[in-house]
Amino acid sequence: MRVSVEGIEPSGQPVRFTFDGREIVADSGDSVASALIAAGIRGFREANTDDMRGVFCGMGVCSECSVVIDGSPGLLACMTPVEPGMVIESHPQIPPMPQALVEAATELNLAPDVLVIGGGPAGLTTALTTARAGLEVVLVDERAKLGGQYFKQPPESGQIDEECLDAQYTKGRHLIHDVAAAGVEVLLGVRVWGAFSPTHIMAAGPHARYTIRPRSLVLASGAYERGVPLPGWTLPGVMTTGAAQTLLRANQVSPGSRVLVSGNGPLNLQVAAEMVKSGVKVVGLAEVADIQWWSRLRIGASLLVTVPSLALRGLWYRMALARAHVPVMSRTSVIAVEGRGHAERAIVARLDNKGKVIAGTERTFDVDVLCVGFGFMPSNEIARSLGCSHQYDATRGYLVADLTISGRTTVEGVWAVGDSAGVGGAQLAMAAGVLAAADIIETTGRILADAVTAERSRATSALRRHARFQKYLWSMYEAPVLTLQLALQDTLVCRCETVTLRDLEIGIDSELHTAGALKRVTRAGMGKCQGRYCSPIMASLAATQSGLPIDEFSGFAPQPPVKPTEISTIATPQPPNERHCSRS
Question: Residues 61, 62, 65, 68: is their CA dihedral positive or negative?
Answer without folding.
Answer: positive
